[in-house]
Each structure stands twice: as structure tokens, then as C-alpha cells.
Write a structure and sequence with these properties.
The complex is a heterodimer of chains A (about 230) and B (about 130).
Chain A: H1 2-13, H2 26-83, H3 87-162, H4 169-198, H5 200-208, H6 213-227
Chain B: H1 3-11, E1 14-15, E2 18-25, E3 31-36, E4 39-48, E5 53-61, H2 70-81, E6 88-92, E7 95-102, H3 108-128
Antiparallel strand pairs in B: 1-2, 2-3, 3-4, 4-5, 5-7, 6-7
Classes of the chains: A mainly alpha (about 230), B alpha+beta (about 130).
Chain lengths: ~230, ~130
């Protein structure tokens, strides 16, 4: 991942990318994708192999148990033969026991080797899984980077074909200010209109001229009360 | 979410009193130019990939900036990028951009929210960084 990020930065700084050319070129991308497929393939194979080995190990365990069971059963037989004074028969059974024990030991050895291979393979599967996740993340970064470059190149071409040149930040700021001023004017105008409609502006003007309707009404009531004093 | 669905959805939707004017940008990549009402000066460009919906607004180009104050501007851009809602600052080619990335499973409401926020953020950023223009 670090390599990919460094590659992207180096290419960007070098200005390789001014026209939106892919930084990690199509070839590089295909290599990454191939590596991803290889890793996926390896992982699948390792998992299949692992499953087969584990099945084999389970089967060996069963065979070992069976040899051990047979040996202990034969031991009882041999004891009985000795107790009955049948020395020859006991020897024959003892030979069988040796056979079972030998096969058991051989099978156990085979199974131990198998267990080692299983452990190694499990390790390989884990590593492959981690590597796969790494490749996927790398590929995502590379692809997103390319996409952004292609997209911005496309936007630039489009804007350039519509206008003589890309509008500058200063132009944009000018237009923003104009709109904001227009909005402010509209707000002021609508506030003025509101005052007019409610008569608030007229009241203000009257008040300013020293004509206060409210004050007059209070004075009128007071005058009336004075004209008709309490009986 | 794909470009076609989004074009249709944005065309007759409003979000917090905003409307959207959508124009496809011709070319190989699926790109939309979305103009948000009340922030028409800063159109948002939107593209959909497998892993994200990328929305970006151009702020200014490198050659428009005062070269003596470039470091100061970069420092301020990095600092302001963190608290800015739903957007981050970046650079692609010579363009300084403000952008936001959404999950491809986002719905139209989230996308509209992003578009409105991004367009407004772009205006605020332009006005904030005006002093750094050459």
C-alpha cells in the first residue's frame, strides 16, 4: 500500500498528471488485478488442500483408535489363553498384538506429519487472506485516483468548451457577492413592504411629526373623565 | 445509486427549500454537474464509482494563489477541513477542491444533503480564503 501511495504522490508532484493521465498506468493496474486473481486462486487452492488434509487426518485418527481397540481386545484374549495354559495360542495372539501396535505407531507417525502440514497450510491461508485484503485496498486507491483524474479532466474539457476559459475564483466571488447583495436588497424591500402593508411605516412618520394616535386617545379619555367628575 | 436514477430524482426534488439543476457532463465517465439553488456560483460535480459517490466543487487553481502565502493557506485548509460538516479539502491536478464521499448505498436524501452542504461550504471557503488569491 505504501508503495502505491508513494507512486501516486511522486507522479502528481512531477506534474505527470496535468492532463489527467493515469498515474499508475493501465498496465500497472492490470498487474495489480492479476496479482489479486493469483492470490484469490492460491487461497482457494490452499483451502481445498486444507480441507482434504483435515479429512485425511480425521480418518487416520479413526484407524489409530481401531488398531488400539483391537490390540487391547487381543490382550484380554492372550491373558485368557495364558490362564488356560495355552502357551502357543497366547504367542499367536501376541503376534497379532504386535501387528496392531506397529500399525498404530505407523499411522500415528503419518498423522503427526499430516498435522504439521495442516498447521503450515493454515498459516498460508491466513497470509493469503491478508495479502488479498491488501491488494484489494491498493487497487481501490489506484482506481479511485484514476477515476478522480479522468473525471476532473472531463469536467475541465467540458467547461472549457462552454466558456472561453475556466472561470476564476475572483469571478466566482464577484458573482457570489452580487447574489448576496441582491438577496439583501430583496430582504430590505420585503421588510419595507411589510411595514407599508401593516401601516407601521405611517405610524412611525406620524410619531416623528409629533402626531401620536395612542397618546391622543389617552388624552381624550382623560378629558372626558374630567368633564364628568364622580357624583 | 446510479447516475440515471439520481438525475431523475434530483430533477424534481427539493431539500430544505433548495432545488437542483442537473446537467450530465459528456465523456466516458458518468459525471453530473449539479447546481444548487441559492448557491449557483459553485456547481457540484458528482460521479459514482463501485466504492463511493464522489461529490466535488472547484475552489481555485494553484496559479490563482499568492505564492508567498501558499504555506499559510495549506495550513489553514488542513485545519478547517476537520470541523467542516460533511466535506474535506483536497487537491487534484492544479485544482483545489472541497469534496465529500458517500457510500454507494446512500439514498437521495443523504445525497441532497451532501450537495447542499458542499455548495454552501464552497461559498464560505471561497470567501474565507479570498485573501490568499493573488
Amino acid at each position: 500500500m505504501r508503495t502505491v501511495l508513494k507512486k501516486i504522490l511522486t507522479a502528481m508532484r512531477g506534474g505527470v498528471n496535468e492532463l489527467g493521465e493515469a498515474v499508475v498506468d493501465g498496465q500497472g493496474n492490470r498487474i495489480l488485478e492479476q496479482e489479486l486473481r493469483d492470490s484469490e486462486h492460491e487461497l482457494k487452492q490452499a483451502k481445498q488442500e486444507l480441507a482434504a488434509l483435515m479429512a485425511e487426518s480425521a480418518s487416520l485418527a479413526r484407524q489409530i483408535r481401531s488398531e488400539q481397540d483391537s490390540a487391547s481386545k487381543r490382550e484380554q484374549d492372550a491373558r485368557k489363553a495364558i490362564a488356560a495354559g495355552q502357551e502357543d495360542l497366547a504367542r499367536e495372539v501376541a503376534e497379532r498384538i504386535v501387528g496392531h501396535e506397529r500399525r498404530g505407531a505407523e499411522l500415528t507417525q503419518t498423522r503427526e506429519l499430516l498435522q504439521q502440514r495442516i498447521a503450515g497450510l493454515k498459516d498460508r491461508v491466513q497470509r493469503a487472506e491478508k495479502q488479498l485484503a491488501d491488494y484489494r485496498r491498493e487497487l481501490q486507491v489506484v482506481k479511485t485516483n484514476e477515476r478522480v483524474l479522468r473525471t476532473t479532466a472531463q469536467i475541465d474539457t467540458n467547461i472549457n468548451s462552454q466558456q472561453s476559459s475556466l472561470s476564476t475564483a475572483k469571478d466566482t466571488l464577484e458573482r457570489i457577492r452580487e447574489r448576496q447583495a441582491r438577496e439583501e436588497d430583496r430582504q430590505t424591500a420585503s421588510a419595507a413592504l411589510e411595514k407599508e402593508l401593516t401601516g407601521a411605516d405611517l405610524d412611525e412618520k406620524l410619531k416623528a411629526a409629533g402626531i401620536d394616535g395612542e397618546q391622543d386617545a389617552v388624552n381624550n379619555v382623560l378629558a372626558r373623565l374630567k368633564d364628568s367628575p364622580a357624583q | 445509486m446510479d447516475i440515471q436514477t439520481l438525475t431523475l430524482a434530483l430533477g424534481d426534488s427539493t431539500h430544505t427549500g433548495r432545488t437542483f439543476d442537473v446537467m450530465p457532463i459528456s465523456g466516458d465517465e458518468p459525471v453530473l454537474q449539479v447546481t444548487v439553488s441559492g448557491a449557483e456560483e459553485t456547481p457540484v460535480y458528482l460521479t459514482v464509482t463501485d466504492t463511493q459517490i464522489l461529490c466535488l466543487v472547484y475552489l481555485f487553481d494553484e496559479q490563482e494563489l499568492n505564492p508567498d502565502r501558499l504555506n499559510e493557506l495549506h495550513e489553514n485548509m488542513l485545519r478547517i477541513s476537520v470541523p467542516m460538516p460533511l466535506s474535506a479539502l483536497g487537491k487534484t491536478g492544479d485544482h483545489y477542491v472541497v469534496y465529500g464521499a458517500l457510500s454507494p448505498t446512500s439514498g437521495t436524501a443523504e445525497i441532497m444533503q451532501e450537495l447542499v452542504t458542499l455548495a454552501e461550504n464552497a461559498i464560505d471557503l471561497l470567501q474565507t480564503f479570498e485573501d490568499y488569491l493573488a
